[in-house]
Specification:
The protein folds into 2 domains: 83 residues; 133 residues, Alpha-Beta Complex (Adenine-n6-DNA-methyltransferase TaqI, Chain A, domain 2), CATH 3.90.220. It is 44% helix and 16% strand. It is built from 8 helices and 10 strands. The strands form 4 sheets. Strands 2-9-6-7 form a 4-stranded antiparallel sheet. Strand 3 and strand 4 form a beta hairpin. The longest helix is centred in the C-terminal third of the chain and has 40 residues. It is flat and about 65 Å long. The protein binds a DNA duplex (20 and 20 nucleotides) through strand 3.
Length: 220
DNA sequence: GCTCTGTAAAGAATTTCGGA
DNA sequence: TCCGAAATTCTTTACAGAGC
């Protein structure tokens, strides 16, 4: 049963990727509530939609965020990974607001991260804030697509450990800019799908616990 | 040994300051 | 008031340390 469940999850993940690809390459077109197709997407440069925020106005009392590829931006306390932190450097940390995007030192591998938290992070990261009205979830998914990561890598030369993607570089990359309604529509579709996967993962965890319990009973 | 995050230090840019 | 130098702030990069 656990194996079957694993397969279901894998299958859903593949579907999720396929869905993202289709949506962002505009192979499926969404329709609005009246059944009309949305207008063609516009494309804007990253610099037109986001600006580079460097806000250091904090009293070192905000939680320190770790920028991970797996979970995006999360508080350092909630992951099992201790990093050497020097107290003095915390003073120069940048403030991250809820809904900001963060270009990490590894963005050429895992895309651009989205923050659900308010906190501070190392100044080596670039904080992006939206200039005009956007559906953040839409871009959250877009920044994680394989296509976009490929775009990020396209112009990068000599990729090596710790290579930084500068804001200037980001701002030159075109981003899709469908109208707001469509952005929300797409974001909600993807979000629903993601939730579905999470539910399946929870079921899997339930199975695993059951198995452990049963095994324990057998040997008692 | 490899991958991953984050620091420290070097380098670049911007602002401040003083003298003419 | 303008120019150049010094100081400060911001950006970039090499590499350290944690965990597998």
């Amino acid at each position: 049963r656990i194996q079957t469940q694993n397969k279901i999850i894998e299958g859903l993940k593949v579907q999720m990727l396929g869905l993202q690809e289709k949506i962002f390459r505009r192979k499926i077109k969404m329709k609005d509530e009246y059944g009309n197709e949305f207008p063609e997407w516009e494309f804007k440069n990253g610099g037109d939609l986001f600006y580079n925020a460097t806000n250091k106005n904090h009293n070192s009392d905000l939680p320190i965020l770790a920028i991970t590829q797996d979970h995006g931006a999360i508080p350092r306390d909630s992951i099992d990974y201790q990093i050497s932190v020097t107290d003095k450097s915390v003073e120069s940390y940048k403030v991250v607001e809820i809904g900001d995007f963060i270009i990490s030192l590894r963005s050429f591998q895992g895309g651009i991260e989205y923050s659900n938290y308010r906190g501070i992070c190392s100044p080596a990261y670039i904080i992006l804030k939206n200039k005009c009205e956007i559906e953040k979830l839409f871009y959250k998914y877009y920044f994680k697509t394989v296509d976009y990561i490929k775009l990020l890598n396209k112009k990068l030369e000599g990729i090596r450990d710790g290579k930084m993607i500068s804001y200037a570089y980001f701002s030159e990359i075109p981003l899709p800019y469908p109208n707001l309604k469509q952005q929300i529509e797409i974001a909600s579709v993807l979000h629903t799908f993601e939730e579905k996967i999470e539910i399946e993962i929870r079921i899997l965890k339930g199975y695993s616990r059951q198995k452990q319990y049963l095994l324990q009973q057998m040997f008692v």
